[in-house]
Design brief:
Largest sheet: 2 strands, antiparallel
Helix content: 10-25%
Radius of gyration: 18 Å
Mean pLDDT: 77
Distance between the termini: 53 Å
Low-confidence stretches: none
Strand content: 5-15%
Number of strands: 2
């Protein structure tokens, strides 16, 4: 039985912040007069709702120097 497929450069990289689940539905907690629960779609701030990230962006962020 074959094991998991190793990641290659051709496969899309999954966003480490949302693990590929880029959009979440958040309920407001209060029902309206018709009994419906209003919801809001919220995208991952790191990948902007794509579920993947670009290795170039991660490297660019790693190259930033923080000085005190």
């Amino acid at each position: 039985m074959p094991g998991p497929t190793p990641a290659t450069l051709a496969t899309a990289r999954i966003c480490p912040n949302c693990d590929g689940f880029a959009t979440a539905v958040v309920g407001s907690g209060a029902r309206d007069s018709r009994g419906n629960l209003p919801t809001v779609l919220v995208d991952c701030p790191a990948c902007h709702g794509t579920g993947t990230f670009s290795p170039d962006l991660r490297l660019a962020a790693a190259d930033l120097e923080v000085t005190a």
